[in-house]
Amino acid sequence: MTPGKVDLKVVGDRLQIVVTCLNDLRGIPTGSFDEFISDRRNPLASDAALRRALEALFDVARHLLAKGKGLAGLEYREVAKLAGEHGLIEDAELADCFFAMAGYRNRLTHHYEEVTEIELFGIVTKRLHDIEAIAESLRAAAADLVQKP
């Protein structure tokens, strides 16, 4: 595939979805695990917002790989792997985290019956910064790709 033009509107719109989902996740009561599960809607909302944020990140990475690098038709794990290999996510540890997120997104979607309330609580209370860091890395990569002739 031949590289094309990165569409900053597509990138910006998808990254805004990530921001909105992160804000929604931060609005969920997480003072304790008991508080989190006291309303069954909290884990459900966490699952939905987390999955949506991850899908938006992968949509951005897929767009940047297709338009900026000429790589297309990729599954989530391949998108994550290539995002690291092609400099969309320069930090190796963060690239590994993105790869793990691909597996988790697939788990949320296809093996949802295995996802526990305690793991959702752990992600909402301890891992949202990873999503933010990847979003910022993709935002920077998009700006770099637009600047390159």
Structure description:
This protein is mostly helical. It has a single domain (8-147), classed as Up-down Bundle (Four Helix Bundle (Hemerythrin (Met), subunit A)), CATH 1.20.120. The protein is 75% helix and 0% strand. The chain is built from seven helices and no strands. It has helices at 8-26, 33-37, 41-69, 76-85, 92-110, 117-126, 128-147. The radius of gyration is 16 Å and the shape is elongated. The two termini are 18 Å apart.
List the helices and strands and how they pair.
Blueprint: H1 8-26, H2 33-37, H3 41-69, H4 76-85, H5 92-110, H6 117-126, H7 128-147
Query: Can you summarize the main beta sheet?
Result: none
Helix content: over 70%
How much beta, percentage-wise?
under 5%
**Termini, distance in Å?**
18 Å
Weakly predicted, low-confidence segments: none
The arrangement of helices and strands along the chain is HHHHHHH
Shape: elongated
The secondary structure category is: mainly alpha
Number of helices: 7
What is the domain total for the residues?
1
CATH fold annotation: Four Helix Bundle (Hemerythrin (Met), subunit A)
Q: What CATH architecture would you give?
A: Up-down Bundle
Give me the Rg, rounded. Answer: 16 Å
Q: In CATH's first tier, which class applies?
A: Mainly Alpha
Any idea what the CATH superfamily is called?
Answer: Nucleotidyltransferases  domain 2
* Strand count: 0
Overall pLDDT: 95
